[in-house]
Each structure stands twice: as C-alpha cells, then as structure tokens.
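Thread: quick sanity check before group meeting

JM: Hey all, I'm pulling together slides for Thursday and realized we never actually wrote out the predicted structure for the chain we discussed last week. Dropping the sequence here so it's in one place. If anyone has concerns about the input, flag it before I start.
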Amino acid sequence: MSKELWRYSAHELAGLIARRDVTSRAVVEAHLDRIGQVNAQVNAVVTVLAESALSNADVADRSVRRGHPLGAFHGVPFTIKANIDLVDSPTTQGVSRLANAMPALDHPMVERMKAAGAIAIGRTNLPDLGLRLHTDSDLYGLTRNPWNLNYTTGGSSGGDAAALATGMTPLGLGNDIGGSLRNPAFCCGIASLKPSFGRIPDASSLDPHPPLLVGQMMAVQGPMARTVADLDLALSVLAGPHPRDPRSYPAPLKGPRPATPMRVALVAEPSAGTTAPSISNAVRRAGSVLSASGYIVEEVEPPMLETAVTTWGRWIAWEFSTIHQELAQVMSADALGFFDSFIALFGDKPSYAAGVSLMQTRHEIARAWSEFFADYPIILGPTWCQPQFEHGFDIAGPNSAGDIVNLMRFVTPMNLLGLPVVCVPTGVIDGLPVGVQVIADRFREDLCLEVAGTLEGQFGVITPTDVAL
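JM (edit): ok, ran it. Output follows.
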C-alpha cells in the first residue's frame, strides 16, 4: 500500500476492500493497532470492540471472496459515541449510573451502517449526558486534543473527533443539539455533517423513550469523518424515514439548482459578541476561495441572529431545568456546575406561557431566515468565534458560561431552526486547527457538501495527525 491503512478515508478503504487490494481484517487490525498506539494519550475510544470487529471482518472478507453484493462501507470500521445504542454494548451517556444500560436494539444509524457492511470497532467518549462543550466524562475521564494535549476537543462528540483526527477510525457517529457534531470538528480539524432535522432517524430502546420537547425538535444524529466525500456517502446510507422515528422524513438528497452563480452570505464576525481575528480571517480566506471558484460572496448577516441565540438558550434552560433533580443524581460536580451556570444565564423559571412565547419567536426567526435563503442559498461563517480553550476554561469562574455562549454563538441558531451544516477545516493556526461552517436551508445538505468540497479542494485534508507530545 502507498500509505498506512489507518490514513485512508472510509470511501477509499471500501474501494480497496471491494477490489480485493486489501482485506477487511487487515483494515480492522490496522485501526486496532492505531488505537493501541495513541489512545492512551488522548482517551478518545473508551471501549474497544476488538473481538467482534475481527470476527465481523472475517465475515466481510468471505462475502468479498464469494462475490456477494457489497454495501457502501463493506468491511470498513467505524466508531459510535457512547450515547448511541449498539447492541451488546452499554449506552452509558458518559455517566457511572448508566454503566450497565444495555440496549435491546441498535440505533437506526448503527443498523444502517451495519447493513452497509460497516464494522463497529469502538465506543467513544462524551461529557456527562452530552451537556457540556468540553469532553470530560464522569465515567471515562478527560479526552485530550491530539494537536495540543492541554486543549479541549470540544463537545459533546469529542471522543469521535479525536479518534478521527488520529486515525483510530475513518468514520464516526455522533449527535448535535447545540453544536455537538460541529464543536469537536472545529477543535480537532475534521469534517462533520449536522443534517436537517428529520433527515436522519433517531431512536433509543432505553428509557426515557420520549425525549423532552427540545430534543424532539432540535436534536439530530449525524456522521463525522475526515473528508467531505465520506460525509456525502454516509448521508446516503443514513438518511431516510425509519418506523421507530415518527419525525424522520423522506426528503430527496438533492434539490433544485439555485440560480447561478450561487450567492454566499459571508459572516466573518457574528454580531452580539467578540470574534478573534484568527477566526474572522479564516472565514474571509474561505470566502476568497469561493469567490475565485465562481460564487458571489457578500458580507451580510442573516436576520435576528442574537434573538436566535437567546431563544435557543432559553429553550434549553427552560426544559432541562424541569428535570434538574434527575440530572443532579447522575452528573459530576463539574458537569452540573457548568450546566447550572448556563441555565442561570437564560434564567426564566419554567412556565407554559414562556414555552409558547419561545415557540412563537422561533417561528418568526425561521420565517426570516427562510426569506434570507431565497437570496443567499449558502451562509459561510465560523464554527467557534474564539480559538480552542485549555482544559477547565468552561468552569474556571463566574463568567465562564457566558464566555462559552459567546464563542459558540454562530453554532446554536442552526439547531433552533433545524438547518443542515457541514464543518470543514481550513488550516492550522498557532498549532491548532481552524475551520468554517457551510449552512443552507432545510434539506439542502447537497449544497452544503458541494461548497464544503470546494473549500476542501483548496485547503486540503489536515488529518490524520500524530499526537502532539
């Protein structure tokens, strides 16, 4: 092979296996070896499924030899965040109280990945219940950023991001209610897709089956990878309705072509907060690449941005405060402390009237953004508005939660409105990755992927990387 197997992308590995250039066992063994080499330094993969992965690789190789039809990811390993159901492995949510929570059924994403021939190789870390922007788990401990071990991987899908960035896996599954697919992608220099709400089904066989309203209307599941092509292929595997998720929707994967040249709204410095020059400069560099590629790029901000951030925060605080007693029983002191500080920022006590008002405001914002997308089919902006922070920053003092909301203020409106986003890295600054978000209207993942692919073609793929020592 021209390079080590763990350095290949998922779609490249699938091609090598299908052509019999390499066996699935060799691919799985290469990734298991890589986990053994680097995982102790970053603590990304919290459960290694070596025995079952090797057994399934042998089954995959027999299918290739016998000429059976092969799925899109036949024989390719993947990792699964520890809050996504995988049969015979606990869905721990990163907390000790759920260390033995065994699901009866695979999550629909896992089910579809297996049907496409992929092989589960490990479970990955997350903060307690996924409710923190920093991956430090009550059950598993701290995940470190391979670019600089003193810095955060983001959250909550930080384990998968670090595993991808170091070549321990070519593809990961995560989820996102407040940037949890995108925050770690930015921090670790990988690509991720937050799909439109309803695009990829979500279901768990564990209690509580009915999620809070905020989960029913904002939380999404999605893929993480190192290349845009892998995200595109993963979307084709994962998308579509599922009988266990009544919210999942059979939208086509491609929509009508917007007027060309396509107009892009560039948001280098989102309003209502501060943006580091390194971040705004990176966004403008990405905009210049798109201009040179034939897009019309204009610096203009979508409407009601600050209201969108506040509405998302108030909704999260309002609903999760109703189950605060249950959260306090399972979360660590650090995780609960951060969440309490976050709730205090947005502060309204729960009431039915407050909830109705939030839904009315959400509708007003959604209508304004829908009209904006008619003029600008793509929005290009930062993921975080500040660089990655050192471990402990998010709980360092009384203003920490406000600092976190400031840096992620261009992330949460896309959850509030159910919009698709692709995160793609655009380089490395001061030893840490930097990247952008590519955003489109609902069910226009195809436009996000197209534009992100253009950026990737210019800036390149910056992972896998070795662990910084």
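AS: nice. DSSP finds 16 helices and 13 strands in the chain. The longest strand covers residues 421-429.
JM: adding both to the slides.
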